[in-house]
Design a protein that fits this description.
The chain is α+β, with helices and mostly antiparallel strands and 670 residues long. Helices cover 26% and strands 25% of the residues. It is built from 15 helices and 23 strands. The strands form four sheets. The chain has a seven-stranded antiparallel sheet with strand order 17-18-19-20-23-21-22.
């Protein structure tokens, strides 16, 4: 988008009931930063009260319409994300202003790539607005969401303020105290600071009076309400662990959620359910992350265990209940938990679905180490379509729970030291060997027969065991994406090279036939910020794992320059990394290990000099685990380790993909 342009959100996506707005920038020194803020404005262009001003000391709206999610590290800076539930915005709010401000005399002109992006409810990026030259201003309005009839639109603003946060907020009627502003003598008659050059002129402002109280309250003396302050920073976990006071390493730190007393699967299920549900209720951002995909609103959450509900002659006791209240309405879900690889039971889940339908509950949530696949339910239940009230059945993996906790602890923060500590103790509990909450950890009974059948060349197409292995492989890849994404703080998703609408069962059947024919399991991972798709191949005939990435050739320069630059970028990569040149026409190009190519990068060029180079493929090979479990020598552990090693030792050294705008700018510079 360009400055001043606008667009309807409904024209870009069908999922715009909620949105994620991200403000980002980069700093040459690596230390530049800014604080984001949101203002809800009425028809007069003013906040209804100071409570309509959201910043790091007031990050969440009571109705869930606004939630500041905190900072997320990027490759060369940081990005602040804000969640908007547009269906919960009060009717009298007509505009939502999204801004950011710097402090201690810093200016936005010192930052690079100042931008705002907006994504819909399913995470699809819809728009991007780059402020090309922010100038010497200390606050900027990046953009605004505003109503037009029944729909929401977004306008790219890019207006700067030399007077910083105090001038920006005062413009919209906020009675703000700012440390820098308090040090100066206020002059009511003086006009507000002018916006930066290129921004629309702002009207001269008089002193803004505080909102008038109701007539029946004017006579009574009232304690002065606290106003938003901007001096206090949000709590974040310590960057380095504090030195322990223990006398020796054998001492174990006291834990809020101990696991040493767990003796049976029933103990593990009861403890895991109680631990998870209690932390969800005490850490609202975490609870919202878990329940939002299931249609739960943003509101006050309460969780319960040891619940008894009538069902025929024998009452049923689900493992837990989640209740969320918003605007007087209640959303309720039953929770059924399994740990230690135990499967879900269809009769249990069916009973809970029937109870939920009769009592008007919205959902039943199953939680286990298994991973649900599209078109392949973990349990078969019958849904009575004749009932007016329908209940949704959702599944959650323990790996997804750990992933969400990891994202909040390591990359986004929860704005409170006590809540951070709770999440850390939850994550420690989930990752303990005795908790039983380890995620997908078994390739199934078909793994060994299929592996042996491929080795002996006796496995035939159409064998149902091959389909079981393909489904297990897909579950494993989804879990690998969760673990890698949690470590990186970036979105990692499986990439499917199929048309939308393709039947998942038919797709897996084709992959099973290919497994029988070629003896290989293949997958691709889409890592945000990576130069290409990360490929993973398990060759069951050779018992080797291959992780690879393809890099497109640059649009400018000479092939020898490309080769030399690539080898320099891979200076810290493993010496056994295979580098292959991709050429036009698909025929094999030159290849070699990094150890051999380091002294002679020119060996990557085609000998005839005329064949066009389209890119390079980088690959690492590793021995494949044989066992079906997640033990040290198991297949699951070997795949997880191979992907982690390849990304941390190879991909991190490569250039991120160049956006269209940056590419044009780079070509202009050349």
């Amino acid at each position: 988008m360009t400055m001043g342009s606008n667009v309807s959100l409904s024209a870009l996506s069908e999922h715009v009931g909620s949105a994620i707005v991200s403000l980002g920038w980069s700093s040459p020194s690596g230390e530049g930063d800014a604080d984001v803020s949101v203002l809800l404005l009425d028809g007069n262009g003013k906040v209804r009260s100071d409570a309509d001003f959201y910043f790091y000391n007031n990050p969440v709206a009571a109705d869930g319409s606004v939630q500041l999610l905190g900072k997320e590290p990027t490759r060369d800076g940081s990005e602040d994300r804000i969640s908007f539930d547009l269906t919960a915005v009060p009717a009298e709010v007509e505009r939502i202003v999204v801004a950011a401000s710097r402090y201690e005399g810093a200016r936005f002109g010192e930052l690079h790539d100042v931008r705002v992006t907006l994504a819909d409810a399913v995470g699809e990026n819809l728009l991007r607005f780059v402020i090309e030259d922010p100038g010497q201003v200390s606050a900027i309005i990046f953009g605004e969401l505003y109503r037009r009839g029944e729909e929401w639109k977004f306008r790219a603003v890019g207006q700067g303020y030399e007077s910083g946060l105090a001038g920006l907020a005062t413009d919209f009627g906020v009675d703000i105290e700012d440390d820098e502003a308090e040090s100066a003598t206020p002059v009511a008659e003086e006009p507000a600071a002018a916006p930066a050059s290129g921004a629309p002129p702002r009207a001269t402002l008089e002193a803004v009076p505080a909102p008038r109280p109701p007539a029946d309250e004017e006579a009574a003396p009232k304690k002065r309400t606290a106003r938003p302050r901007t001096a206090k920073k949000k709590a974040t976990p310590p960057g380095a662990p504090v030195k322990s006071l223990a006398e020796n390493d054998s001492w174990k730190q006291a834990r809020l959620f101990p696991v040493s007393t767990l003796k049976s699967d029933r103990d593990r299920e009861t403890r895991a359910t109680s631990v998870l549900l209690s932390v969800m209720a005490q850490v609202p951002r975490f609870g919202r992350r878990i329940t939002a995909p299931f249609g739960a609103p943003s509101g006050r959450m309460e969780t319960f265990t040891e619940v008894s509900l009538p069902h025929g002659d024998t009452p049923r006791r689900p493992d837990g209940v989640i209740r969320v209240e918003r605007a007087g309405k209640l959303w309720t879900a039953l929770v059924e938990t399994k740990t230690n690889g135990n499967p879900l039971k269809s009769d249990q889940v069916q009973a809970y679905m029937d109870i939920a339908a009769r009592r008007g509950y919205e959902a039943v949530i199953t939680l286990s180490n298994d991973v649900a696949l599209e078109g392949s339910p973990l349990v078969d239940v019958k849904i009575d379509r004749r009932r007016k009230h329908q209940v949704a059945l959702w599944h959650l993996s323990w790996a997804e729970v750990a992933h969400q906790a990891q994202m909040l602890i390591r990359h986004e923060g929860v704005g409170n030291a006590a809540r951070t500590w709770l999440l850390q103790d939850l994550l420690h509990y989930l990752q303990h060997d005795n908790s039983g909450c380890h995620g997908f950890q078994n390739m199934g009974a078909a793994w060994v027969p299929v592996r042996n059948g491929i080795s002996d060349e006796t496995l035939c197409q159409g064998d149902p065991r091959a389909l079981e292995v393909v489904e297990s492989w897909e579950r494993l890849i989804r879990q690998v994406c969760l673990r890698l994404g949690g470590e990186l703080g970036q979105k990692v998703l499986p990439a499917q090279r199929t048309r939308r609408g393709t039947d998942p069962g038919a797709r897996r059947a084709r992959l099973a036939d290919r497994l029988c024919e070629e003896g290989r399991l293949q997958a691709e991972l889409r890592v945000e910020g990576a130069p290409g798709l990360l490929g993973v191949t398990a060759d069951l005939r050779t018992a080797k794992l291959r992780t690879s990435v393809e890099i497109p050739a640059p649009e400018q320069g000479y092939p020898l320059t490309w080769a030399k630059r690539l080898i320099r970028r891979l200076a810290d990569a493993p010496a056994d990394l295979h580098v292959e040149t991709l050429v036009e026409g698909g025929t094999g190009g030159p290849r070699g290990t990094l150890e051999r190519l380091r002294p002679e990068p020119a060996d990557l060029l085609p000998k005839d000099g005329a064949t066009r180079i389209t890119g390079f493929r980088l690959s690492l090979f590793k021995g494949m685990g044989s066992g079906r479990g997640s033990a040290e020598s198991g297949f699951i552990r070997s795949v997880d380790d191979a992907v982690h090693r390849f990304y941390t030792s190879v991909v991190v050294h490569l250039d991120a993909p160049v956006s269209g705008r940056a590419a044009v700018k780079e070509r202009a510079t050349v």
